[in-house]
Amino acid sequence: MHTDIIHTLKLLKKRWKNPGAMEIGNPYQNVVGVLLSARTRDEQVLKLMPRFFRAFPTVQKLAEATPKQIETKINTIGMYRQKAKNLKGLAERVVSVYDGTIPRTLEELITLPGVGRKTASVVLVASFNTPAIAVDTHVHRVTNRLGWVKTKTPEKTEQALLKIVPDPWKKTVNQVFVKHGRYVCIQKPRCWACPVKDLCAFQKKNLEAPKNAHAILEDIEQREAFLETLREDAV
Ligand code: SF4
To answer: Of 20, 43, 54, 113, which has the fewest CB atoms closer than 10 Å, so is most exposed?
Structure first.
């Protein structure tokens, strides 16, 4: 099983070369980005980041801001009032409890307002190079289809994946499956464009390429390139 997992991850890493959309900046910038991206398109978050970090360049500056001041910098995205409140609480806690430094363990990170296991795992991997697996709906769906896990919830998927994916490859799981789930292994999967179809256990593969396959693939490339440009300019 380990061999198949590593082989699959290698093939997907070749297909999806760019880092995760929120793998940005220092730990402070990283945790802010991941928190803002909950239920929001990455593009929208990446677009507002330069403005946000000009206003609040450090966690101390963010802690000093009022929720209203934070809201004005993020009001283009969903749930911005709640997110502003969480950011304020997060910054205050980091300053008062952690001496202004983003904590480096999952247990500590999840004590910050608005930070759940998924957010914490992304930060652990991206900022601290600590093995962790952030499971969202994409990671959950694709790993079930591949036959790696047989689980009903993302939480169960995370537990199962932590056991079967070797440490050096844990980082890659979220990186590649979020993109694969967004562009190829979608609800009606584009198995015809999938580099790991021979390693996949899904029973209802969709192997017939549509007439506009070329246009679909081109659109994916363009969207990925655009996202990468935004990511590079975010901080
Ligand atoms: S073969 Fe199809 S179902 Fe399996 S991972 Fe690829 S796109 Fe998803």
So the answer is: 54
1.20.1250.20, 1.10.340.30, 3.90.190.20, 1.10.10.10: CATH of 27-128: 1.10.340.30
CA 125 to each of CA 53, 129, 140, 176: distance values in angstroms, whole numbers, following the listed order? 22, 5, 18, 13
Ligand 1 mutation target, pool 138, 185, 198, most atoms within 8 A of CB = 185
Count of other CB atoms within 10 angstroms of residue 186: 14
* pTM of the predicted structure, to 2 decimals: 0.92
Yes or no: is domain 2-19+132-233 CATH 1.10.3130.10? no
Amino acid at residue number 28: Y
Surface-to-core class of residue 66, CB atoms within 10 Å of its CB (0-12 exposed, 13-18 middle, 19+ buried):
exposed
Residue 222 Cα to ligand 1 midpoint, Å, equals: 21
DSSP symbol at 205: -
Render pLDDT for 123-158 as a digit per residue (tens, 0 to 9): 999 999 999 999 999 999 999 999 999 999 999 999
146 lines ligand 1 (CB under 6 A): yes
